[in-house]
Amino acid sequence: MKFEKLRTSKFNHWVIIHLRxxxxxxxxxSGLVKLMGNRFTRISTDNPIGYFxxxxxxxxxxxxxxxxxxxxxxxxxxxxxxxxxxxxxxxAILTNIWIITISLSFKGTWxxxxxxxxxxxxxxxxxxxxxxxxFNYNKTSIIKEYPDPALVWIITGxxxxxxxxxxxxxxxxxxxxxxKWFSVILGAGILLTFVFSNYKxxxxxxxxxxx
Length: 211
Fold this sequence. Notes:
By secondary structure, the chain is mostly helical. It has one domain. The protein is 73% helix and 0% strand. The chain has 10 helices and no strands. Helix 2 runs antiparallel to helix 5, helix 5 packs antiparallel against helix 9 and helix 6 runs antiparallel to helix 7. The two termini are 22 Å apart. The mean pLDDT is 85.
């Protein structure tokens, strides 16, 4: 089967793993802004876009809840092990965002959200064997099992998630010398983690998948 051939390709696994990192990270900036109770944009309320976001901001806890949902979806994706649940959450949230960017005529933003929609659909298709039993109601289903990502990718995702959240909390641009240096260390840690995990996968292809 074509799907099985694609699903067992180690290179495809590597692409999907990093696509999860990328898509998961995409929700962090806007999600953290909402979770911390800050405004997402400074556009005037005379503009429909500014008016819309100001109304959401004034909703209070709902604004924080949106941020929490985005961060949760991003973290689940980056853990790799719970990436299917993260992709489902991401699809629900992103579909809403995608429709908003189209209906309010965001300049160029709808293109970005459309690409994100394609990416999350690819992730769901990748894990379709986990989702098909949902639609096979009252039918006996044989679920094909594929190896999970190796431990190195799970740890890498956790490092990325924690580091990105910490970098936002530190605010290296406006922070003191201590925060700036700690931000540099975190940035270096992200870079070293990326280099190490990919070097390990390149050196030993079996590291892409667990036994």
